[in-house]
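fyi for ur records
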Amino acid sequence: MKLNEIADNPGARKNRLRIGRGIGSGMGKTGGRGGKGQTARTGVRIKGFEGGQMPLHRRLPKRGFRNTAFQARLNEVSLGKLQAAIDAGKLDAKATVDAEAMVKAGLMRRAKDGVKLLGTGELKAKVDVAVYGATKSAVAAIEKAGGSVKILKPVVEEDAEPRGKNKRKSAKSAAKEA
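which gave:
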C-alpha cells in the first residue's frame, strides 16, 4: 500500500448540494422550500404546528412518571477494564478501589453519583472494591478471585404497612388465606 493509493470508500464522501443556483440545478428559485408563506422565510418555522389543528403532542394523553430528575447518574465499569488498569499499574490492587481511585486511574472522567461494576471481562487480581452497586456476576467474579465488594448504595427498608391501595388489598387477601 502506498500513500497515493489510499482512498476513502466509494460513496463515503458526497459533494454538498448547492441550493439556489439556477433552474438547471433542480434546486434553484425557491431552493426546496416550496412557494411563499411563513415556511419559505428564514427564522420563523413553527415546530409541531399543524395549521391550527391540535398538534399530535397535545392530542396524546400524558401518563406515567419519569424519575430522571432524581435518578442516580452512575458510571459503568467492567471487570475487564478494572483488570486492564491493574495490569497497566494505574490501580493498586492492594488498596481499596473506589470511585476516586478509578478517576485517578483514568477509567472515567468524573465520579458522578457513583460507580456500578459490571461482570463483563475477566478479573484475576485479588481486589477490595467499594462501589455504589455491582451486578451479581461481578460480585461472584471478585469473590472467586479472593477479593471483596462493599456496596455503598443505601438499603431501602420495606414499610411495616404496605403503601398503596392495591398492595394493601393483596396483603389483606394473603392474610385471610394464611
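The two ends are 79 Å apart (CA to CA). thats all i got for now
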